[in-house]
Structures are given as C-alpha cells and as structure tokens.
Amino acid sequence: MQTSDKLLLLRNKMVELGIDACIIPSGDPHLSEYPSQHWKIREWLSAFTGSAGTLVVTSEEAGLWTDSRYFLQAEDELDTQSITLFKEGEKGVPQYTEWLCEVLMPGSRVAVNGATVSVSLLRKITRELRKEQIQIDSSVTVAEDVWEARPAIPDNTVIIHDDKWSGQSRAEKLEMLRREMKRDGVTHYITAALDEIAWLLNLRGTDVPYNPVFHAFLMVEFGTVKLFINPHKLTAQIARKLDGDDIRVSLYENFEAHLKEIPDDASVLLDPDRINSSIYASIPPKCTKREQTSYITSLKARKNDTEIANLKKTLINDGLAMVHFLKWLEDKVGEGKITEMSAAETLKSFRAAQPEFVGESFRTISGYAEHGAIVHYSVSNETNLKLKPEGLYLVDSGGQYKGGTTDITRTVALGKFPKQAKTDYTLVLKGHIALACAVFPQGTRGVHLDILAREALWRHGLNYGHGTGHGIGFFLNVHEGPQSIRPQDNGIEIEPGMVSSNEPGVYRRGEYGIRIENLILAKVKQESEFGTFMEFETLTLCPIDKTLIDKSLLTQQECEWFNNYHAGVYNALAPLLDEEHRNWLKEKTSAL
Predict the structure, then answer these.
(1) CB 430 within 8 Å of CB 458
(2) Which is the CATH superfamily of the domain at 3-146?
(3) What are the residue boundaries of the structural domains of the chain, listed by start?
(4) Contact call for residues 79 and 3 (beta carbons, < 8 A)
(5) Shared fold status for 159-295 and 305-588
(6) Beta carbons of 3 and 15 less than 8 angstroms apart
(7) Average pLDDT of every residue of the chain
(8) Which of 150, 310, 361, 438 counts the highest number of beta carbons within 10 A?
C-alpha cells in the first residue's frame, strides 16, 4: 500500500472521530527508543525507518519532523508528494506544535495516543497548542486503528541473567530500590521502561530486535512487587524464582486497572520522561505523585565492580572480532566482491565466534563513501554499495554479550582518499582524545564536557549534529540514560561507574563520513583540598586507522595518548591472536 493510500485511511478515520490533526510519535507504551514491530505505526504510515521522528497529519497536509542524524535518510525514504520533511534545528523550521498552530483554526481537535507519549511531552504539546485555543485529546487511538494486518505484540520467552554477570541478585537490587523509596517517603514505585524492569529482575528477553528486553510493567511496594506480563513468557523455573522473591505476576493488559486501585493516601514515584500519559491518568488523583528521574535509571547507570570487570573482558572479545574484521576487509577489498551488506554480515560472524555472544546491539551502520555521511545509515538491497579499494568506509557496530553491551565506530581508508579527509579525520581524532583525557570535578555534567570533543573542529569551521556521548547499558539497551555528553544540558552529573560513548565525527554530504567511537568509564582520579576530581578510562580495544592521520596537526601529548592507547590494544589482544593476525595488529598499532 502506498503512503498516500495509508494517509487516506487515516484521514477518513479522523473525519469519523471529529479529529482535525493527528500526532504520531515513534514510541510504544514503554517509550522505547526501538519499539517492536507492533508499535512502529509512524514507520508504517510514512515509510521513514529512523528511530527518531514524529509524523503529523492534518486533513490536507502531513509533515515528518526528525533531527540531523536522519535528514539524508528521511529524504531517501519519504514520499515527498505526500509528506513534507521538517528538519529539526534548522533555521526557520518550526516545531510541529508551531506548525499546527499555523495551519489549524482555534477550536480544532488534535489527537495523540496517550500510551505513546510521555507525561512531559504531552504537557508540552498541550501547553503550546492551548495558546491558539487548540485542544489535545490523548484518550483516542486513530493511527493504530487503520493499520490492517498489524503485527502482534511479541510473545517470546524470558531468560535469566545470572548473578555472576550482574554482580547483584534480584533481592539485593530490590533492597537498594526500597532504600531509595524509604528515604523519600515513597510507597509505590511504577515503571514501564523495559530496560529498567529487565535490570531490576535480572531477566532478559528477545521481544525487541537488538535490545534484550521483554514487554512488561512493574509496580514495587514495600510488601510486594507486581509484575504485569503475559505469563506464557515465563518458564516454570523463572516463575518459582520470582515467587521466592515475593514478586506477583499479573496479566500485562491489566496494568492500568491495577493502578486505579492504588490507595488515595499512597505516595507514587513517577519519572515524567519515562512514564506514558495514559499510565499517569490511571493513577487516582488523590494520590501524592512524586516526579523525578527514575531510581532505577540512576542505579543501573552506575556499573558495579562485577559489571565493569565483565565488560572489560567482553571488550577484549569484541576487540578480537574487530581485528579479524578489519584485517579481512583490508585483504579482500581489492577483489571487488565486498558490499556494505556483506561487510556487515561478515563482522557479525566474527562477533558470533566470540564467547557469550548473544546478538548485535543495533543494526550495523555500514557506510561506504557518501553513505558514511548519513549518520544513521541503514543499508538495503536498493542502496547496497560495492566497496572499492579507494575512499573511506565507516562502520558503527556493536554486540550484545552476557558480559556487557558494546558499541564501536571505526573509519578506515580503503585506498586513495581525498586530501581533505586527512585533515577532517585528524580533527575528529583530536576531539576524541581531548574527551578521553578529560579531568573534571565531581558534579560536572555532560554539557560541560561536550566542547572538548568539538573545539578542534570548530576552529576549522566544522561541526557535527549529533551528541558526543550516550550512556550504554550492561547487556541491555545500547543507548542508556540518564547521562549524555551533548550541547543540550539535561542536568545529569557524570558519576563514577557510568559507561558512555566518545564519538565525535564530521560528515561531508555526498562525499564521506568520519566518526571515531570508543567506550569510556567515569572514575575518581583524586581527592584534594579542592574536592573530588574524575577522569575517563577508555575501555574499547581496537586499532584506529593511522593512514588517515596528519601528524603535524597533533600535539606531543596527543601523539603520546594515541601511542599509549595502541600499545594497550596490542598488549591486550596480541596474546589471543594467531601469528598472522598478531603481526597485522603489531603493524597497525606501531607508534606514530
């Protein structure tokens, strides 16, 4: 079915319900970054497959709002005769609420499914539309109702995440959580975030591609824990273990009905950024609602010693897979048989050969030449370029292992490349090193550090549109809050134990993209009379392409960091490689 036909179905339904416009976000009832196929309503309607974007449809027009990571992708995927692309952040581009205020009349009615928007977002939309006397209705479903042959919610079996990986038992985590609740006088803790539920219960699943989570809701009280899940997803063994920890299982679809039974004198903790507005509306109005960042979001971001030790072992295995891949790429690219798609598949096979590998942590971004400039490029049969022994190739990939989640980007020269690329690459490397070497006082937020990765690029009039760093889960979501390193301030301090990415880049449309990404661990460096100071430890182990470096642009300290990093890569990986790969790695990690 064509996009225009789907939009016609939607508009007919809007007329039937008396709706003048419909907002269709990317989320599901759990506000997941990557929802299951059942909830990819925006994608079904618009054909845009990016993970971030909002579709807005009126009786006569439609627009898709997305950020700079997806501009090129959206241009390729959208039917521009039916949907206009609005590039968020670009000069003169209105927000979708501003656009609705321009194209709708006062008294108009706008629908959004309250189960797919956070409390914070619905409040923002309501506040902005109210200025023009436009009503927002979050109690109706419109887009969902016109999707024929909609995929079912996944019903996959849940698996145990052993304590030897997590470092803490389910009971210990519940005790930690209840200490937080007791301190704040909270009687009921509610979460719908799938990664939070998986972390707290030491369980994992396969309901969402690349994210080892399962569909469920959770309510924690002092006497009991209520897990709302399809019981068929639980094995008898898991059900017994949950019962042993006083965790009661109820049906997934009964969650909101249970919320309505919370006593009026209860104090309920909610994260307005991670709870959907339908859940919020189901809680009795007389309850005290305490709004703040979710306890679990903060607890799981600070990795414990066992998780850190396991992640370091995992990154050795991931580094071995990358070495095998990069050598294979170098050896075979001249044969003219490698494509973006086959390269990604080969990389996956090298990871799959490593111990405790479960799957990829996201779909590999395998971008050759101009496709490297598409920040979240997704190769397809129609776009699948053949790699030639020239130009640049960007590969952003990661693995899910029982011992942790990985995320790494390398940009490599496959042969002759543009002269400008050498300068660009070196400036990106300078930014990467600056962040890796950061020393900062406790209390520093990601926004304070972001400039370190951009300064060298800024001095040459260059920049990149995405964040510099995101948190990363432990055998969980590859993008994890609450911390981030980006120009926008989210108020979250960098704390010891947080693992983040370090990934500056630069992208020249139609030519190439460059990004260098490692994982970094925040840790205490020293205590002094001026307070506690922190630093980052780089965890990722993989050579960084030297052929693209203009050494004249590097300081002595930057050269020393680079050489020390490569020495560490060699020392960690070489003993585990055969002679052929060991010799290759020795050359790739030799000093500048």
Answers:
(1) no
(2) Creatinase/prolidase N-terminal domain (3.40.350.10)
(3) 3-146, 159-295, 305-588
(4) yes
(5) no
(6) no
(7) 95
(8) 361
Kindly report, residue by residue over 115-170, the tens digit of the pLDDT: 999 999 999 999 999 999 999 999 988 888 899 889 999 989 999 999 999 999 99
Which token pair is 66?
A: 């997305």
| Residue 145 CB burial class (10 angstroms; 0-12, 13-18, ≥19) | middle
Give the pLDDT confidence score for residue 376 in this predicted structure.
87
In this predicted structure, the answer to whether residue 71 has a pLDDT above a threshold of 90 is no
Residue 401 near residue 364 (C-beta atoms within 8 A): no
Dist. CA 417–CA 425, nearest whole Å: 11
Helix H, strand E, coil C: the string for 123-185 is HHHHHHHHCCCCEEECCCCCHHHHCCCCCCCCCCCCEECCHHHHCCCHHHHHHHHHHHHHHHC
Determine how β-strand 392-397 pairs with β-strand 365-368. Answer: antiparallel
Helix axes 340-352, 305-332, angle to 10 degrees: 140
pLDDT surpassing 90 at residue 72: no
Provide CB contacts within 8 A for 570, sequence distance 6+.
585, 586, 589
Kindly state which CATH superfamily the domain 159-295 is placed in: Creatinase/prolidase N-terminal domain (3.40.350.10)
Answer whether 64's CB lies under 8 Å from 96's CB: no
Quote the tokens at residue 76. Answer: 């390729």
Residues 235-245 as b or e (16 or more Cβ within 10 Å = b): eeebeebbeee
Which residues, at least 6 apart from 312, have a Cβ–Cβ distance to it below 8 Å? 539
Q: What pLDDT is recorded for position 540?
A: 98
Neighbours of 52 (CB within 10 A): 15
Q: Is the pLDDT of residue 193 over 90?
A: yes
- Beta strands in 54-134, from DSSP E residues, in sequence order: 54-58, 62-66, 84-87, 109-112
- Which class for 558: exposed (0-12), middle (13-18), buried (19 or more C-beta within 10 A)? buried
Question: Cα separation of 276 and 115, whole Å?
Answer: 5
**Does the predicted model carry a pTM greater than 0.85?**
yes
| Confidence label for 68 from pLDDT (cuts 50, 70 and 90) | confident
Instruction: For 281-331, give the DSSP string.
Output: HHS-TTSEEEESS-HHHHHHHS--HHHHHHHHHHHHHHHHHHHHHHHHHHH
pLDDT score of 559: 98
Q: In this structure, what token pair is assigned to residue 510? A: 């139609």
Give the list of residues 6+ apart from residue 572 with CB closer than 8 angstroms, or none.
316, 319, 541
Considering only CA atoms, which of 192, 41, 51 is closest in space to residue 112? 41
Topology of domain 305-588, CATH = Creatine Amidinohydrolase (3.90.230)
